């Protein structure tokens, strides 16, 4: 029976929430294989001079643990 592990990561983008989520997947994929899903737990923005300066997400990434 497969085991699924979940890790929590924080990622950001200067462009959009979509890009922040993609950045999370891209970075996690560098060291984690078999990613099944990403649950976006929280959204946030940073504000500078009354304008949104960056977008951030807190994500839970689920992946299958595979025997070698």
What does this structure look like?
With 68 residues, this protein is of the alpha+beta class. It has a single domain, classed as Flavin-binding protein dodecin (Dodecin subunit-like, 2-Layer Sandwich). 19% of the residues lie in helices and 59% in strands. A three-stranded antiparallel beta sheet has the order 1-3-2, covered by helices on one side. The longest helix has 13 residues. The two termini are 15 Å apart. The model has no long low-confidence stretch (mean pLDDT 95).
Q: Please give the share of residues in helix.
A: 10-25%
Secondary-structure class: alpha+beta
| Biggest sheet descriptor | 3 strands, antiparallel
Number of distinct beta strands: 3
- Integer average pLDDT: 95
CATH architecture: 2-Layer Sandwich
Overall number of domains: 1
CATH domain class name: Alpha Beta
Annotate the secondary structure layout.
Layout: E1 3-13, H1 17-29, E2 35-48, E3 51-65
Antiparallel strand pairs: 1-3, 2-3
Quick tags:
68 residues, alpha+beta, Dodecin subunit-like
Brief synopsis:
The protein has 68 residues and is an alpha+beta fold. It has one helix and three strands, in the order E-H-E-E. It starts with a strand and ends with a strand.
């Amino acid at each position: 029976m497969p085991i699924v592990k979940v890790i929590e990561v924080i990622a950001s983008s200067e462009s959009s929430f979509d890009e922040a989520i993609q950045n999370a997947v891209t970075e996690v994929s560098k060291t984690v294989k078999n990613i099944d899903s990403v649950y976006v737990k929280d959204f946030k923005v940073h504000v500078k001079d009354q304008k949104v300066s960056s977008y951030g997400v807190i994500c839970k990434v689920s992946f299958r643990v595979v025997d070698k």
